[in-house]
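Re: your question from the hallway

Yes, I did run it. Sequences:
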Amino acid sequence: MSEDATETFRSEVRTWLDENCPKEMRDGASGEDAIVWGGRNWTFTSDAQKLWLDRMAAKGWTVPTWPVEYGGAGLDRAHHKVLLDEMRKIGARVPLQSFGIWMLGPALLAFGTHEQKLQYLPPIARGKVRWCQGYSEPGAGSDLASVQTRAESDGDDYIVNGQKIWTSYADKADCIFALVRTDRDAPKHLGITFLLIDMDTPGVSTKPIRLISGKSPFCETFFDDVRVPKANVVGTENRGWDVAKHLLTHEREMISGGGQGLLGGRALGAVLNAQEGGLSDPVLRAEAMGCEIDALAVALTLERYKDQAESGGGVGDASAMLKYAGTELNKRRHELMMSAGGADALTWDGKHEGLASDWLRTKANSIEGGTSEVMLSIISRRVLGLPA
Amino acid sequence: MSTLLLTEDETMLQDAARGFLDGAAPVSHLRKLRDAGQTHDAKLWAEMAQMGWTGVLVPEEAGGSDMGHAAACVLAGELGKTLVTSPFISTAVIAATALRQVATDRARDALSAIAAGDAIYGLAVDEGRKHDPEGVELAARADGNGFRLTGTKGFVVDGGNADRLLVLAKTDAGLTLFDLPADREGITRTAQNMVDARDAATVQFDNVQATGDDVLGAVDDAMTVLKPALEAGQAALSAEMLGLSAGAFAMTVGYLKERKQFGVEIGRFQALQHRAAHLWSETEITLSAVRHAGRMLDEDPANATLAVSLAKARATQTAKLAVIEGVQMHGGIGMTDDFDMGFFMKRARVATEWLGDYGYHAAKVAAARGF
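Structure:
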C-alpha cells in the first residue's frame, strides 16, 4: 500500500469513527462490563453498546480481515493496522469479541465449504451467534487426540454421547464446535471429526466449574443422545484433527498475547510506579526490569512472525513458542504486580474482580490451549527434530 | 519501519558470508591463531575488505558499500557463528559510524582507509571494570592550541593490533573524542592475555600531544559522535552474540541427536528436550530484538537507544544460557580444550562485558519504559 493510499484510508476511517462511534464507547474500557460477546441471549449494558456493534458490523469492521461476502471488510494488514490505530487514538472500545471471531472463523475460512461460510460467518461477524469450543475431556487433556465423545452414524445424522470439560462459557454459548470420535478402530488421530452442534439441541447440558480466581469461565458440557446433522461436519469425517490443529495454532497466538495484548499493553514500569511505593524495593525493581525486557522482545517476535505470515512464509509450529513464552511472561508479570501491590492486592470484592482474581486467572494461561510442557515437546520434535 | 524479516539483499549477503566463512574461518581458525599466540589474521581482514564488509557502513563516495546497520548486523551474526577473530565491530562498525558523523576531509580519508582494509581502529573508552563512558577520568588538558592526554585506558578492544585509537577524554567542560594514531609519542600499548584469545590492550597515555584536528566532532561534546557509534557497536555485538548462541546451539542439538547413553540417543530424554526447546525459544525471541535494533539504527537512529539496549540485554542473557547449556548437555567432553564449546563460552563472557553488560542495558531499557 502506498503512503498516499494509507493516508487517504486513514482520514476516511477517522471521519467515519468521528461520526459513528458513540461518545460512551470512547472510554477505552476493556473490563468485563465493557466486553460484548454477542449471541442470541446477549443483553447490552447500554443502547450505545448495541449501536456501536451494529454500525461496526455494517462496515465489516468487527472482523476487518475477513472477506466482505462473509461479513468482513477484506482489509490487508496495513489497512487493518490503520483502523486499529485510529480506534485506539479515540479510545474506541472493541465492538465485539468471541471464540467465533478468534477460532471458529479462521478454521471455517480454511476448511469450510462456501455454504458453511455463508451460513456461519456473517452471524459471528454481527454478534448474533456465540460459539464455544468443545475440545478437552476428563480423560483427554494434554493428550487431546484421546477424545472419547462418540458420534455414531444414524442415516443423515450422528448421535453424540459423551462429556467435554473446560468448555469456556459453554453456559452462555449458542453453539459449540466439538471434536468427536467417529471411528473407534482407527489410530487415535485418524478417527476424529470436527462437528458443529447447536446447544439448544435436546440432550445438551452444561455445568459451570468454579475456579481459584472465584470465577467460573469454564463448564462441563454433557451430550446425552444428541442428534446432529452430518452436514455440520467441517472438513472431512475422521479428519477433524487437521482442523483442530489449525485452530489450536490460532488459539495459541490468541493466548500468547493476540494481536495487541503485549504491544498495546501498558509498560510494566508505569503500572508498578502507579502503585504506592511500587518500585522502591531494588530486588523487585530488578525483576520487573527483566520482565519488561522479555516482554518487549516477545512482542517484537509476535511482530516478526506476523511479517513472516504476511509474506507467505507461514509460522507453523513456531507458534508453540509464542504460546509458551507469552503465557509464562504473563504469569511473571502478574506475580510482580502482586508483589508491588503487597497487602493492598490481597483483597477482592464480591464479583472477584481486580488484581488478585486476574493473578490467579493467569495460572491457567500456561495450561489452556496446550500446557507449556506440551509446547516444549512440540518445539523439540517438530522444530528441532529431536527423536520422539 | 521495514519488516523484521531479512530483505533479499540481506539474505544474499548472509548466504555469501556463511559460504565464505565456513571455508576461510571456521572455529578451527580461532584455535590455530590462539595456539600460535596471534590475535589477528591480516589476510582474512584483507579478504573481508575486498568483499565490501569493512566498508559496510562507509558511504559510497568514500569507497564503501554503505549497506547499513541491519546488514552490518547480518555480517556480525555470521562472524559470531564461528567465532571469527577480526576487528570488524571496533573498526567497520564503531569507528566508521563515529567518522560518518563528522564532515571533514580527514574523516572522509579515514573512512576510505577503513573501507580499503588499510586501517584498524581500537576503542579506548573504558577505564574501570565496567563500561561507563560518562565516567571517564583520562584527562586532556588544554595546551596552547591543542591538548595533552594523560591517563590509562583498559579493555581497549583491538587496541593491540590497531593503527588508530578512538580515545574518550575529559576536557574542561565535558568529554571530548580524539582520533589518534596508535603509535603517537607517549602512547604505550600492552596487549592483554584475554580469556577469549582475542585482542584487547591496556593503553597508557603519558602527556600525549593532540591537536584540534585530532578531535572528532566538537570539543566538550563527544557524545554527539560517540553515542551513535557505541549504539551501532552494541547492536552489532548483540548480533555477534546471537550468532555465537546459534553456533553453540547447533552443536548442542547435533550432539543430542547422536550421543547414545542407556542404549538410546540422549535427545530422547524429555529433560533435555525441554531445555533445548526453551533455549531455542530464547534465541528466536532475541533474534527479533536484534533485527529491530538494526532497523531502528537505519531508519530512526535518533530514537534507537531502547531498541539497541533491548538487543544487548537479551543477547547477553541468551548467549550465557546457550554456552552454559552447551557445556552441560555435552557432559565431560564439553569441558575439554580439544572440543570447541569452551571457545564459545569464553567469547560470550568477553562480549557480555564489552560495551555494557546486562545491568547497564537493562537500566537503559528501564529508563525508557517509565521505571
